[in-house]
Design a protein that fits this description.
Layout lengths: L7 H8 L4 H17 L5 H7 L5 H14 L1 E3 L2 E3 L1 H22 L8 H34 L17 H17 L8 H13 L5 H13 L10 H6 L1 H8 L2 H19 L7
Antiparallel strand pairs: 1-2
Helix pairs in contact: 2-4, 7-8, 7-9, 9-11, 9-12
Length: 267
Amino acid sequence: MHYYRRNIGDYYKKAGRLSILQHGIYTLLMDACYDRECFPSMEEAIDWTWANTPEEIQAVEFILKKFFSLDNGVYVQEKIKEELNNYANQKTKNSANGKRGGRPKKAVKELDDKTKETQPLLEKTELVLEETQSLNLKSEQKPKPITNNHKPRTNKYTDDDYSFVQMMLRDIVTQQPDFKPPNLESWANTIRLMRECDNRNHTDMKRVWRFARGDLFWQPRVLAANKFRKHFDQLNAQSKIPEAQNLAQNRRQEVTTAVLDIGNTDW
């Protein structure tokens, strides 16, 4: 028997306190018992484990007395004995089956009966496959409709919504040339939601957006359509305060002057 299962948990539960030498002796003894399919006497155990020094011989004696029981001059372990018996019984069964020609084959009649039972199902399956292939072939032969190269619009925003977000982007890029290009379709859809869900209109949105771009506090905080929608009420309220309007107007003027004065080399 050249193979056996070893449960690590069970082993260390029973033999966890052994020394390294004792672990080695115990392992060699188990391997030898399984390999030889028998159990040793004291002298055989010493020989099987190649024990030479007094310490090694003492370890063999300890393992035999601790984990084996003496039976008619040989040291036996019940677990190994049980597995060896099971292995011998299985080997006997395999040998008997081999002499009879291996596993018994199913009767030809039984196979024929099952074939008759499944034949209608196989024929029906083949028919369905043929029909499916025929439909696929007709579908492939059907001329494809002529379409333009434009992708279908997935959102319901209008052209005015899209023009509005283009204006938003131009204003941002004027102040921040390195601004990363956004998804304008997503921005346009947000403007649509502001109209349809929030009851805004383009005129008010444009006024509030101009205020946001001219206000030093809101300018870096509102750089996307969703942020514009989120803070619209605050922006709208502040844009109606005269002082805020004057500050925003002055800021827009400063930005416009800085952009247009391309001949200025003071920087």
